[in-house]
Structure formats: C-alpha cells, structure tokens
C-alpha cells in the first residue's frame, strides 16, 4: 500500500482513572470523520505517567487490551498506545499495536526515565519491534526513547517511527528538535503524540504532537495545549523518492546493538 493514513489524538488525561480515560478516548475515536489506518494514543493513556504501578497495572490480557481490540474492530483501524502491564511479577510500560482483526503486538519501553525513578518501578524492554502493516515498516517507541538515537537508528529499513509520550512542557524544545532530528537522520516519517494538561504530580504538558517527513519538514504545525484529533496521510512513493535522491542511508555506519 503506497499511502498510510494516521490519526494523532492529543488530549488531557484523567489521573489514575482508566475507565474515564477509555470512555474519553472512545468518544474522540468515534468522532473521527475521515477514514484512517492507524489511531495513535499517548503514553500511559489510561492513567497518565505514574509510578503507582501496583494500583494501576493490568494483566497482559486485561480490560484495556480488550477495549483496544473492540475499538480497532469497530473503527477498522489500528489502535496503538501504552499502559502499565504486570507480567510475572514485573511491571512494564507496554505499547500495544492492535489491528482490526484483533491481532496485537507489543513493545516494552527500553529507556526508563531515571530522572523520575521510572527504573525503580518498571522493568526495561530489551528488543525493538518492527511492524509490517499494509506495505509499511513501522517502529513504535516510547517517550524517553526519543533521546537515544542509536535505539532509533534505521538499520532495519523502517518507513515510520512512532513516538508516544508524556513529555513535560518544560522540555518542549527538546521534544520538537529531537523528533525532527530522528526524521532527518533516519530518512523516515516520524510521528510524535504527546498529551496536554496537568497530571497528579502537577507536571504540565504542552502537547506539540506532529509528524515530520524524511527531510525534517513538519506535515502539520505543532499545537501547544490544544486538544485535537488530527488525520494525516503519508506517502511511501514520496519517501522512497527522497531516499533515492539523497542516498544518505547508504552511507550509514554499521554496528550491533548489545
């Protein structure tokens, strides 16, 4: 498939209230007027970014995953976003990719945010996930992963990087700059979806959700502190033409992640 339509949902989150958040997102998803292939929700979209793992974790096949499967089926679109999962006594910041037929894949956040003690409450993931969907190769990552270009490196020929986040407003310049940098250095589309509003720790979030093309041009203006549901169409022909014309990826350094 040459084109992929993605929908970014930027909104406030209800603190530690999965039921309210699921209901809120169900309403926003229902109101999407344009046909779309992928609907992207923020990091920890059921709770906000919290270290209260015991109180908020769900099992692997819990209520929110079932909700995502229902939403994907009803809307004939992929639903992706992360939540707190408990598995074998460990807690993970897990991003689910749920397809309309109910099939799903998951990615566990690799880089835990030590500044907020995330590493004391969660177990880090070990592997990247490359999803093949409708002729596209997609790499989903989470928030703090954005700061580490080696983990985001396009050594597997992906077409689209997706970053979901609860990225504080105090560091919004880094968010915008790093999204753009990841697009340029990897010659790939980059979609960043961040929340807005304040959380239970009084941290403020600016949003600035957007998509960059492979040469670092924004496909939509980042909207600060504005709730929105925005749908954009990506073109693989354009991406391959840009890669063929510039050829930067042919000169990349080879290395092995350990």
From TrEMBL:
InterPro entries: C-N_Hydrolase, C-N_Hydrolase_sf, Omega-amidase_YafV. It catalyses: a monoamide of a dicarboxylate + H2O = a dicarboxylate + NH4(+). GO terms for molecular function: 2-oxoglutaramate amidase activity; omega-amidase activity. It is an enzyme of class 3 (hydrolase). Its EC number is 3.5.1.3. Keywords: Hydrolase. SUPFAM superfamilies: Carbon-nitrogen hydrolase. PANTHER family: OMEGA-AMIDASE YAFV. Belongs to the carbon-nitrogen hydrolase superfamily. NIT1/NIT2 family. This is Omega-amidase YafV. It comes from Marinicella pacifica. The lineage of its organism: Bacteria, Pseudomonadati, Pseudomonadota, Gammaproteobacteria, Lysobacterales.
């Amino acid at each position: 498939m040459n084109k992929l339509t993605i929908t970014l949902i930027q909104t406030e989150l209800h603190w530690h209230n999965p039921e309210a958040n699921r209901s809120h997102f169900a309403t926003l998803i229902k109101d999407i007027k344009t046909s779309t292939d992928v609907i992207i929700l923020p990091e920890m979209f059921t709770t906000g970014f919290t270290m209260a793992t015991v109180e908020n974790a769900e099992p692997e096949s819990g209520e929110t995953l079932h909700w995502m499967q229902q939403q994907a089926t009803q809307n004939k679109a992929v639903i992706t976003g992360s939540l707190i999962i408990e598995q074998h006594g460990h807690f993970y910041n897990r991003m689910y990719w749920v397809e309309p037929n109910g099939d799903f894949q998951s990615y566990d956040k690799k880089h835990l945010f030590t500044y907020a003690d995330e590493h004391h409450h969660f177990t880090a993931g070990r592997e990247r996930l490359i999803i093949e969907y409708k002729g596209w190769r997609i790499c989903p990552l989470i928030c703090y992963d954005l700061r580490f270009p080696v983990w985001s490196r396009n050594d597997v020929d992906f077409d689209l990087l997706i970053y979901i986040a609860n990225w504080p407003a105090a560091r919004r310049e880094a968010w915008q700059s790093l999204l753009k940098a990841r697009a340029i250095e990897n010659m790939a589309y980059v979609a960043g979806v961040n929340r807005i509003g304040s959380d239970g720790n009084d941290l403020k979030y600016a949003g600035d959700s957007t998509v960059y093309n492979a040469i670092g041009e924004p496909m939509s203006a980042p909207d600060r502190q504005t709730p929105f549901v925005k749908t954009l169409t990506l073109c693989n022909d354009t991406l391959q033409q840009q890669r063929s014309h510039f050829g930067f990826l042919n000169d990349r350094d080879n290395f092995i992640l350990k």
